[in-house]
UniProtKB/TrEMBL annotation:
Gene3D superfamilies per the UniProt record, alphabetical: 2.30.30.140, 2.40.50.90
Known role: Cytoprotective ribonuclease (RNase) required for resistance to abiotic stresses, acting as a positive regulator of mRNA decapping during stress.
TM segment ranges: 7-31
InterPro entries for this protein: Silence_cplx_Nase-comp_TudorSN, SNase_OB-fold_sf, Staphylococal_nuclease_OB-fold, Tudor, Tudor_AtTudor1-like
Disordered as annotated region, ranges: 995-1025
Domain TNase-like intervals: 48-177, 212-393, 407-587, 616-743
One Pfam entry name: TUDOR
Record keywords, A-Z: Cytoplasm, Membrane, Repeat, Transmembrane, Transmembrane helix
Record-annotated Tudor domain positions: 810-875
Name of the protein: Ribonuclease
Compartment(s): Cytoplasm
PROSITE patterns xref list: TNASE_3 (PS50830), TUDOR (PS50304)
Top-level division of the source organism's lineage: Eukaryota
Amino acid sequence: MKVLRHFAFLWGQVAKIVVSYMLLSFTFLVLSFKSSSNIYIIHFLIQILAVDDGGISSWPGPPPEKTITLASLIAPRLARRGGVDEPFAWESREYLRKLCIGKEVTFRVEYTVQSIGREFGSVYLGGDKNVAMLVVSEGWAKVREQGQQKGEASPFLAELLRLEEQSKQQGLGRWSKVPGAAEASIRNLPPSAIGDPSNLDAMGLLAANKGSPMQGIVEQVRDGSTIRVYLLPDFQFVQVFVAGIQAPSMGRRAAAAETVVETDFTSDEQNGDASAEPRAALTSAQRLAASSTASAEVSPDPFGPEAKHFTEVRCLNREVRIVLEGVDKFSNLIGSVYYPEGDTAKDLALELVENGLAKYVEWSANMMEEDAKRRLKSAELQAKKARLRMWTNYVPPATNSKAIRDQNFTGKVVEVVSGDCIVVADDSIPYGSPLAERRVNLSSIRCPKMGNPRRDEKPAAYAREAREFLRTRLIGKQVTVQMEYSRKVTMADGAAASAAPGDARVMDFGSVFLMSPVKGDGDDVAAATPSTAGNQQPGLNVAELVIGRGFGTVIRHRDFEERSNYYDALLAAESRAISGKKGIHSAKDPPVMHIQDLTLASAKKARDFLPFLNRGRIPAVVEYVLSGHRFKLLILKETCSIAFSFSGVRCPGREEPYSDEAVALMRRKIMQRDVVVEIETVDRTGTFLGSLWESKINMAVTLLEAGLAKLQTSFGNDRIAEAHLLEQAEQSAKRQKLKIWENYVEGEEVSSGQAAVENKQKELLQVVVTEVLGGGKFYVQTLGDQRVSAIQKQLASLNIQEAPVIGAFNPKKGDIVLAQFSMDNSWNRAMIVNAPRGGVQPPNDKFEVFYIDYGNQEEVSYSQLRPFDPSVAASPGLAQLCSLAFLKVPSLDDEFGTEAAQFLSEQTLGSSLQFTAMIEERDVSGGKVKGQGTGTVLIVTLVAEKSDLSINAAMLQEGLARLEKRKRWESKDRKSVLDNLESFQKEAKTGRRGIWQYGDVGSDDEEDLPPLSAAVAKKTGAAKR
């Protein structure tokens, strides 16, 4: 009996059974063989059927293997090293291979020849078909009448001799009577088939057959992912590594290879065990190495034998198709192997990975097609999740993503934030609820960033195109959303760059499906096909449309990181976009669009654009809804963005009843829709006033009908388009007592209407002025704000000594850092306003910084900067920008601008000076002041403690400011305040003070101020605190 070494003990036990019960029969599956008279057998059903007691035993791990020789037969020999086939040797072997491989058989051991260590027996197909008789009857083997000892013969010898004589008479098989048949049956073998692989041209073989399937017969399985194959029809004998995977190693045996090889190739026995693998004779060096390492046994890796067994039962001695993918640096062939299973062909690599018997290997997978790589990678991930076999003890890496289950919903798209983020109004949540709108980030894709204009970040290439692509297809459309996972991300842009570790937010990701295709989508519709993973898509996958147009890329997730349920479809769409050179994958320069954002510019700049916009009705796109009646519009024709407000229509202000509902209505109706506007004028803040239509519907009428706005008749109805419709809409809401009119009583409009709103209590703040700028602007800190003392304590507790290392700390514009104030050497939070170009060189490089808690600005050297310490609170800056209400103060560039700034500094700066700031208005346009921050500007009346005269009145009294132009629709309160202030202005005019020294300038337009004289052109610095 010949047994593989690692199963020697098990088969030793079986041998004892066989000796005791010679009539014992076994059920096996034929795995392979070495010649037509040698059948290589393996347990398949792992059953031992004993006739004495009927017991069933099972083997742990891969079942043991056994070799048995058909008794009394001699088959033609296949070629050995440097030799040739005997006539009909290959045909004889092929007959037996096709007859037995993969079939269940039973066998009986007839006798054993101890001198050569072999067992001889009879093998039966289907329980009654004697294989030896079938072989002899077809003429593929001859019968040996008697062995060396008595009894060494088949019990069916007489029948075998009769069948042999019959096949001779019929001229079957090796007894063919056709002239030249014997010579024709001898194969013309290449050197690699007879033990000389050195002449194999691997690169030439790859070049001739790259990507084309090649037929072959597997002769040996070295491990689960390495096989040796005869390539047909030329019989090239090659070793092929399965592409894209690596199975566990089979280790190395302790026995010296020299003895095994020489024994295999020097036996003269007719029924000798010819090796399935031609081996070269050992050199002296190899003999020495073999003898020195004979005892160095290396055990198989875990699941190595199982992987080898898996490949053997599917491929060994079977016909397979091999697609060569590449050649490594050692001239080893890398290929994909497909074996038959019924009417289909199975991918060996994929089957091994799916069963946890091989791992994905990037270097060889890169030779394969993208689809094949994706399948392998996905299969490995599933095997890891299921912890199959070699992944039993796999510990997944930490991830910040978490699956979201059972949170699918339907709704209408309200906003497209970017190419990979949209806002959807959930149909199941009541209209107007703050939870109705849900932000959905498209799973597993990344599109170019839109940038941030307030931080001077421009949109990346194709960012606008990606957003516009989705806007035109999704806004207002019904979609189905499948939420898939969430991820916790740290805010790392802008002022939050140095935020504390806890300063993070959770982003929700999902797949969005458009229920009906948009007319003109073309190839987008065809591209969105159901996922290969078997997930039926409920519509067009929006992420797939974006990726297919080349407006984004698919994220390469790490193992166990949550991803889109339609990840394979996204990768396929990306491959199509790359091959089609679409969007970001194109070699062409990206389209360039320069948009002038007037919402960030000065009011004067906005007025300069008015003549170009005041030309009747013009198309626009609503970029954002700022409030119920105020919006940001994109005017493509003039390549500008503007702030726009309805003429004569006002919604409740922030934190007032129905304010949020008015915003929600406008977002549903016009957010990112194509609209038509008619611009009439521009106000002092740079906001354009006029009328707006969406689908020929005046949206101001919609607001008034819903009872979410009021008509301001003081604006002048003669200037408002369709004013009669606005009046009718407001009257309708009043009659129905909708929203803001719920307490309306006819005839009491004054008491319950506008006057009530205007007479509401004004907000008062106790402040200290920390910095004075030009033009009547200054920074304040709110008294009693606990954040001030907390941040001061945190800064004082820092132990800041060593200077930063050049290269390790490279602050750039917009970064929040710690800076040392030059006046008192204290450390404060600051924002970099300007930095040296090309990075820091000498340590005395200068940086311009803005102290976010005080409002002042100065230049400091690199050595006076430190990275922002996480222990310091990352709250927004404490300095609030304010402006004097009702006044126009000369800027520093204008005459008397310096004197005005000096006077304001003298009146307000000082640690002991405290003020009450009455907020008259909030300017939310967010204009910049010398780069020193953005955001809401408080328009205030400033009154010193224990003083009856406001700073506003004092500025007028000194002739260092003047009243702003009065409006036609002023409230009674405003009119009263202006009348009071006008008395101080008249006093300055009479006394020829300041700007009135030459009399009345005769204009209220701020651009008509007297020009700055050369004598007072020099600016003054402003002090901190």
